[in-house]
Amino acid sequence: MDFHDSLFWLVSLSTVLLAARIAVQRPFPWGWCGVLALLAGGLVAGRHWLPQQVGYLAAGYWLAFILAPMLGQRLAVHCVARRRPRLARLVARGVTLLHPADGWRTTPEFIEALIALQQGRQADAALLLDRLQDAGSPVGRSVIALQVRHTGQWQQFLTWLEHMPDRDALLFDGNLVDIYLQALGETGQRRAMLQEYEQRLHRSSHPSAQLRVAALTGEVQAVEQLLHGPLRGWPPEVREFWRGTALQVAGRPEAAAALLSPLTACENALIARLARHRLDQPLPPLSAEELDETARRALDVLRSDVEHEARFAVMSSTPYRRPVVTLAIALLLAGNFVREIPGGSQDLENLIELGALVIPRHPYGDHPLAPRFDEWWRPITAAFLHFGWAHFLMNSAALLYLGSRLERAWGHAWTLACYAAAVTISMTVTPWLLEGTTEEIQILAGASGGIMGLLGGLLGYLLIGRLRRHTPLVARQLTLLVGFVLLQTLFDLTHQEVSQQAHLLGLATGWVVGLIVGCRSSNSVGNARHATVP
Which of 111, 66, 116 is nearest to 91 (CA)? Predict the structure, then answer.
């Protein structure tokens, strides 16, 4: 496996996953469809006519026209939140050049409206927002949501949405779902808000929508779980505003005022205005009329969704913890790769001397480095060696991405156990499977078995989560990982130098560990709930 092949398969994976993601979006993003169609056609044609260059060309196209505009739009909004308006404007102009379709050409004006709101220039912001309203584009729908938050015209928004012929399609947009649920809560229709969440929105809602429902019903614990999990990247003043809102509805006005009062003087003018409004017109606690049987059932659904995703949506929602084990393994891999460099990271004799596995394991000829049966340590040392820079960088990136998420959900001990078990089984059993299949000498090295174990662990854990309860985040993340496994399998089948046996053994081992941890986690939740029942 070389760097070029790795790029080709990474771009192919991203193309498939992004295509699956946009296929369910409404209104359909025709601009992204065109971008992906060009990329897919280029991958197929390039594989046939430019096999040695297609990986680099496709990666450049992917970076420029897919990753850059996506990250650019987020970066622009982030720069506004961090009060860096000049950089936000510059990034927004770049996004417009790279992806002018799907309404993204208005991104600079949208960012300018955000800046105006933050700086307290209400008149300028209102003019921009009025001009940018467009329910047919993602940016336009974001503008509608922002304008409603800015003006507080909650009832007008509900009336507008009710008369839209494509109302259900519009509610596929996360921004409009958020503002729709908040509008119901802000106008005193909290029972209707809960009914909407339970009946149809909780299966497609985003954590930010869950936060609004939780805060506007006084579910302080659910709010904290969301702010410590998937929404921990929100600006501090926004997180404090929603904490204060939840406390206010929960009937704790003094605690709410302690959080909201400092926000009235914060640099973010929009949050300052919202905090003043919350203090001047506090939200009342839920009344007995609102908390009928339907509302109580909906609250139970909300609590269960948030708790379940905080436990099982390992790719995004679990609380942050420092991935000590993952970082330690990455450092060990890097240190061993540095040891390879003087003798050549692709020199087979150097790798054998440093501890790579040799198959068959019995001495061959008079080669001075021929391993003996008593060299029990080779399955361990081989797992820390790599064939060249591409192999090392790909494995390191996968380790950091998968390992950090698994460790966030499982903790240090179980993550280490999963990785160690996958490495041990894949590097110990693979030689037995390969012996006798060929007369040629084969060299086995790399951390791929352990990394596939981490992937298997995530897959098994998410599978238990999906079986226990259907929530949108868990379902999407499980689909993402299944797609990754299928593409990795296709890659293994088309590259003879890759050990399919080691990958499958590592994946299966991690999957079993994931099932075990998932079952233990589910049982512990059930026991805890049972113990609290009076």
Answer: 111
Cα separation, 156 vs 187, in Å, equals 11
Q: Indicate the range of 133-147, 154-168, 265-279, 333-347 predicted with least confidence.
A: 133-147
Beta strands in 316-440 (DSSP E): 357-359
> Pseudo-torsion of CA 245, 246, 249, 252, nearest 10°?
-100
- pLDDT of 262 higher than 90: yes
Long-range contacts, stretch 495-502, CB < 8 angstroms, 24+ apart: 495/1, 495/5, 497/1, 498/1, 498/448, 499/430, 499/434, 499/444, 499/446, 499/448, 499/449, 501/426, 501/429, 501/430, 501/433, 501/434, 502/426, 502/427, 502/430, 502/444, 502/446, 502/448, 502/449, 502/452
The contacts found for 390-393 with CB under 8 angstroms, 24 or more apart, are: 390/1, 390/2, 390/3, 390/6, 391/1, 391/446, 392/333, 392/334, 392/337, 392/345, 393/3
Which residue blocks in 435-499 are alpha helix, DSSP H? 448-468, 472-493
* Cβ-based neighbours of 510, under 8 Å, separated by 6 or more: 418, 421, 422, 452, 453, 454, 455, 456, 457, 458, 459, 460
Whether residue 32 contacts residue 18, with contact meaning beta carbons closer than 8 Å, is answered with yes
Neighbouring C-beta atoms of residue 166, cutoff 10 Å = 12
Segment 164-206, tens digit of pLDDT = 877 777 777 777 888 999 999 999 999 999 988 888 776 666 8
Residue range 52-75, pLDDT digits in tens: 888 888 889 988 998 898 888 888
Distances (CA, A) of 142 to 111, 113, 129, 132, 139: 11, 11, 10, 10, 5
Contact in structure between 319 and 220 (CB atoms under 8 Å): no
At 358, is the secondary structure helix, strand, or coil?
strand
- Identity of residue 255: A
The sign of the dihedral angle between the CA atoms of 442, 447, 449, 455 is negative
Structure tokens that stand for 467 in this block: 């079986």
Q: Is the pTM of this model over 0.90?
A: no
Question: Rounded to whole angstroms, how far apart are CA atoms 180 and 209?
Answer: 9
Q: Which two tokens stand for residue 267?
A: 């640099």
Q: Which of 497, 416, 498 is nearest to 453 (CA)?
A: 416
Contacts of 369 (CB under 8 A, 6+ apart): 349, 352, 353, 358
Backbone angles phi, psi at 442, to 5 degrees: -120, 140
Task: Return the structure tokens found at 240.
Answer: 């404090």
Rounded to an integer, what distance in angstroms lies between the CA atom of residue 56 and that of residue 382?
30
Return the number of other C-beta atoms located less than 10 Å from residue 94's C-beta. Answer: 18
Report yes or no: 490 and 455 within 8 Å, Cβ to Cβ.
no
Q: How far apart are CA 410 and CA 413, in angstroms?
A: 8
